[in-house]
Amino acid sequence: TLNYDIMARFRRRTCIILLLFILFICSIMMALKTLRPDRAGFGDPFGLGLLPELQQRAVLLDNKQNSLYRVQGDTVTHVSNLRSITVNTIKASMPPVNQMEEELSSPNYNFHIFYYSWFGNPQFDGKYIHWNHPLLPHWDPKIANNYPKGRHNPPDDIGSNFYPELGSYSSKDPSVIEAHMKQMRSASTGVIALSWYPPGMADENGEPTDDLVPVILDYAHKYNLKITFHIEPYKDRDDRSMYHNVKYIIDKYGGHPAFYRHKTSTGRFLPMFYVYDSYVTIPEIWANLLTVSGSQTIRNTPYDALFIALLVEERHKHDIHRSGFDGMYTYFATNGFSYGSSHHNWASLKAFCDSNNLMFIPSVGPGYIDTSIRPWNNHNTRNRVNGKYYETAFSAALLVRPEIISITSFNEWHEGTQIEKAVPKRTEQVVYLDYKPHKPNVYLELTQKWSEKYRKEQEQWLM
Question: Name one GO molecular function term (predicted).
Answer without folding.
Answer: glycoprotein endo-alpha-1,2-mannosidase activity
